[in-house]
Amino acid sequence: MSATLESLVTGVQVGTVLPLLTAVVQRPAWSTRWKKVVAVVVAVVAGVGTVAVHGGLAQLQHGHLTVATLLGVLAASQTTYDLVWKPSQVAPMIEALTTPKAPQQAG
Description:
The chain is mainly α. It is 74% helix and 0% strand. The chain has helices at 3-25, 32-55, 63-85, 90-98.
């Protein structure tokens, strides 16, 4: 298997679980726009990390490999969020559970 295909497959696998990790930092009260910005930024960071971990930092010099992996992570994360994690209420539940309670709500 080529390095690009291997990196892309790994990126899709990372992207599949990424919405669950993103839900830990997102808050239910945030606007849809900010949630999308956070999701895209996290996907880009995860994509770069996937390329670096999968093939070493030297792989970042290969533009097509990096772009393909970034797009794979982004596409997989958005698709699985919309088709699996949001309808199943798993991601929103994680957001709610990890949101700090205000002092008047605690207790």
